[in-house]
Design goal:
- The chain is 35% helix and 24% strand.
- The chain is α/β, with parallel strands linked by helices.
- The chain folds into 2 domains: 2-103 and 209-237, Rossmann fold (3-Layer(aba) Sandwich), CATH 3.40.50; 105-205, Dihydrodipicolinate Reductase, domain 2, CATH 3.30.360.10.
- It has a 6-stranded parallel beta sheet, with helices on both faces. The protein has a 5-stranded mixed beta sheet with strand order 7-8-6-9-10.
- Helix 3 (83-92) links the parallel strand 4 and strand 5.
- Helix 1 (10-21) crosses helix 6 and helix 4 packs parallel to helix 5 (145-157).
- Bound molecules: NADPH dihydro-nicotinamide-adenine-dinucleotide phosphate and ligand LZUJQKHR.
- The ligand O=C(O)C1=N[C@H](C(=O)O)C[C@H](O)C1 binds next to helix 5.
Length: 243
């Protein structure tokens, strides 16, 4: 299939490598230098655009792509206050839109495991839960999109937590997300359940960006020729029944 890469940084370049390995063609690359060309992209030459830029650029890029009728896999974090507008635009333009704060299959399994654990702990309110995330120092947003998604999933399963804060919590009903930035860390997330006598720690460590990039290309393959709004749950369900 024909893929356009929007944002040719750490993720864009890793996605290019995986997409080529899987037999796809890169028919356009948009980065900062040629960002105005996004409005002139030829929708007939692009099955799916994959957008990994930065929080301040994502909304205008997604708006431009969807307005051209191009299906988009969106990976940029830190812009999702505008999510409902983007979904509405995709529906209006009959385009396909796929969003995940983390395309790693492992992270999405980790979400399910953490939510299940939160549901079990709900019967035992002596256990307090918090989230830890560590990323490279170039990361612009905090907390990570993955940590926000993890927090919202846990909040849904527990009565003790009703909102999250990106700091130590002042109130028991707040779920603390503790963020740390260190050189060269692709991404670490942990859900930590602390009891009086013991600690249960569920942790995902990305060894590199290859897992994120592979998931994004799988999402693009899934989205080709489809309209509508999709998430990693749809992609994971598409594997149901495969041996
Ligand atoms: N969903 C997921 O699985 C993952 C999401 N991410 C997210 O993806 C985003 C990108 O991460 P990463 O690749 O590490 O970041 P990088 O900074 O390495 O890459 C972003 C690229 O986009 C370019 N860019 C900035 N503005 C525009 C614009 N308006 N149009 C086109 N290109 C633009 C940047 O150029 P310049 O450097 O010159 O500004 C840079 O080349 C982040 O939000 C990150 O959190 C990251 C990993 C996994
Ligand atoms: O900026 C990154 O690098 C990452 N961003 C995503 C996030 O904010 O959750 C996903 C991954 O953790 C890497």
């Amino acid at each position: 299939m024909n893929i356009a890469i929007i944002g040719y940084g750490r993720m864009g370049k890793t996605i290019e490598g995986i997409a080529k390995e899987r037999g796809h063609e890169i028919t356009a690359i948009i980065d900062v230098e040629n960002q105005n060309e996004i409005n002139q992209l030829d929708a007939d030459q692009i099955d799916v655009a994959i957008e990994f830029t930065q929080p301040a650029s994502a909304l205008s890029n997604l708006t431009a792509l969807i307005s051209l009728g191009i299906n988009v896999v969106s990976g940029t974090t830190g812009w999702t206050d505008h999510m409902e507008d983007v979904k509405a635009l995709a529906k209006e333009n009959n385009a396909g839109f796929f969003y995940a704060p983390n395309y790693s299959i492992g992270v999405n399994l980790f979400f399910a495991i953490s939510e299940y654990a939160a549901g079990l702990m709900n019967k035992f309110p002596d256990f307090n839960v918090h989230i830890e995330e560590v990323h490279h120092v170039q990361k612009l947003d905090s907390p990570s999109g993955t940590a926000i998604h993890l927090a919202n999933g846990i909040i849904e399963k527990t009565d003790q937590k009703t909102s999250w804060v990106n700091a130590e919590n002042d109130k028991p009903e707040e779920l603390a997300i503790l963020s740390e930035r260190k050189p060269d860390v692709p991404g670490i997330h942990a859900a930590v359940f602390s009891g009086e006598h013991d600690v249960i720690e569920l942790k995902h460590t990305a060894a590199s960006r290859l897992g994120f990039a592979t998931g994004a290309v799988l999402a693009a393959e899934f989205l080709k020729g489809k309209s509508g709004i999709y998430t990693m749950k749809d992609l994971l369900h598409s594997f149901d029944g495969e041996s």
